Automatic annotation (TrEMBL):
Entry keywords, A to Z: ATP-binding, Nucleotide-binding, Transport
Listed name of the protein: ABC transporter ATP-binding protein
InterPro entries registered for this protein in UniProt: AAA+_ATPase (IPR003593), ABC_transporter-like_ATP-bd (IPR003439), ABC_Transporter_VariousFunc (IPR051782), P-loop_NTPase (IPR027417)
Gene3D superfamilies (UniProt xref): P-loop containing nucleotide triphosphate hydrolases
Amino acid sequence: MTSVLRAQGLGKKYHRDWVLTGCTLDVPAGHVTGLVGPNGAGKSTLLNLAAGMLAPTSGTIEVCGGVPGSGAEQLAKVGFVAQDTPVYAGLTVAEHLRLGARLNAGWDDALARHRIERLGLDPDRRAGKLSGGQRAQLALTLAIAKRPELLLLDEPVAALDPLARREFLRDLMETVVEHGLSVVLASHLIADLERVCDHLIVLVAAQVRLTGEVDELLATHHRLTGPRRDETSLPADQEVISASHTDRQSTLVVRTEGPILDPAWTVGAIGLEDLVLAYLARPAAGLRPSLELLR
């Protein structure tokens, strides 16, 4: 398996606070990877480390076979759209494309101009006059037209309305298929991740709590409902991720690769949002995260 991003014991510290610690990851090439977690979990820090915008405090990170930010050749391999989808308000769309061409040796001007035309963006319109969705599409165009191997997207649709989000994600997937990009997409919006991602990373409290291919993760996690019991009584191969109890009933989310044979349990499938929430709740000291963390 070819890795597009590999981290070993990666950590980043600001003053006395670790915003990312002990991060070990192996993200396969050719996937759209969803990066999810509550605010302050370290998502933006991980993406900035991968883009070469930050240097690690501890551990190592390798992106597209090289050290992030180590030179022009390495920088050309990575496209990055930061959380505020940065564009220059005073520059026109056409001026953005000319700037992209000057700054990127591998710039594909035909691709950039085709995207702008297909999206209906006026080349003479200043970026500050564009809608939020149009600015996001312009930023994505700049990132894609440099022809990167890896595209890093930090909450690119967070400020968009539902229709603009759907259009952005549909356009992203078309681009991924057409150009064979690997993508790491940070988002709070699990429904959006379900549409586009086939690989998942869950960050909680500056640490990786879960990583893997989405289909495999969903196949190995189950919801068990049955008479109330102590979850420590389950077989050793059934890892309890979360548990809730009433006077008479227990509901558990467990991870196992084997069959669940106890007839007392009703076994149900688990969706991506419930899976993520189970892992968000797991390290908390008695406080269950709200769904608002993911919206």
